């Protein structure tokens, strides 16, 4: 069964979603979100942020308070919370299960949060919780975090033979 996508969620770009999440997080952290704060957080100019906020207002995702600070509307808040949740799930999976350093996991999660489906995010969350179990499965996942496939000098593993070397783990052999 296909669900209709509400108008305010259609054609949202990753950039648009970043604005919504930045507003949400700034308001949670300091009680307000000014255009300059959003610009600083996203590494953009204040002018770019002002233009984007006007577009978000037209779409019904933000409104402005008396001080002209952006406030998320109910639909904007739902989108931002959903995005933030998907980011956290992916980040936790990448750090707690795969063992990536937090900084690398943050960059990856920022990309994944825009494309991962709710179904896959939900299953990742299940896997993270499953991996936190102190039983045999949890112990095997913890062991996996320390495992990295490598190719021995003079030979290649099956993955490298099929797909070529993976720079992070395999040594390219010189011929």
Structural summary, described in words:
A two-stranded antiparallel sheet has the order 1-2. It is built from 8 helices and 2 strands; from the N terminus they run αααββααααα. The chain is mostly helical and 175 residues long. The protein has 2 domains: 8-79, Winged helix-like DNA-binding domain superfamily/Winged helix DNA-binding domain (Arc Repressor Mutant, subunit A); 85-146, Diphtheria Toxin Repressor, domain 2. α2 (35-42) crosses α3, α4 (74-97) packs across α5 and α4 (74-97) packs across α6. The chain has helices at 14-30, 35-42, 46-58, 74-97, 102-112, 118-131, 136-146, 158-163; strands at residues 62-64, 70-72. Helices cover 59% and strands 3% of the residues.
CATH topology of the largest domain: Arc Repressor Mutant, subunit A
DSSP helix fraction: 55-70%
Oligomer kind: single chain
Q: How far is the first residue's CA from the last residue's CA?
A: 54 Å
Mean pLDDT reading: 85
Overall tally of structural domains: 2
Order of helices and strands: HHHEEHHHHH
Largest sheet: 2 strands, antiparallel
User: What is the global morphology?
Assistant: elongated
**Which CATH architecture of the largest domain would you pick?**
Orthogonal Bundle
Rg is 21 Å
Strand order of the largest sheet: 1-2
**Total helix count?**
8
Instruction: Kindly state the number of beta strands.
Output: 2
- The fourth-level CATH homologous superfamily of the largest domain is Winged helix-like DNA-binding domain superfamily/Winged helix DNA-binding domain
Name of the level-1 CATH class of the largest domain: Mainly Alpha
Q: Which strand-content bin applies to the residues?
A: under 5%
- Based on secondary structure, the structural category is mainly alpha
């Amino acid at each position: 069964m296909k669900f209709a996508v509400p108008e305010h969620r259609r054609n949202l770009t990753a950039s648009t979603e970043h604005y919504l999440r930045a507003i949400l997080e700034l308001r949670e952290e300091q009680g307000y979100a000014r255009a300059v704060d959003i610009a600083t957080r996203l590494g953009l100019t204040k002018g770019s942020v002002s233009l984007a906020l006007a577009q978000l207002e037209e779409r019904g995702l933000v409104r402005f308070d008396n001080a002209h600070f952006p406030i998320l509307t109910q639909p904007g808040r739902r989108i931002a919370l959903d995005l933030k949740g998907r980011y956290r799930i992916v980040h936790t999976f990448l750090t707690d299960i795969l063992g990536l350093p937090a900084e690398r996991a943050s960059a990856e999660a920022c990309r994944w949060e825009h494309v991962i489906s709710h179904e896959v995010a939900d299953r990742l969350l299940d896997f993270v919780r499953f991996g936190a179990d102190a039983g045999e499965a949890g112990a095997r996942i913890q062991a996996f975090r320390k495992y990295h496939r490598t190719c021995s000098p003079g030979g290649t593993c099956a993955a490298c033979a099929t797909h070529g070397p993976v720079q992070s783990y395999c040594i390219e052999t010189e011929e």
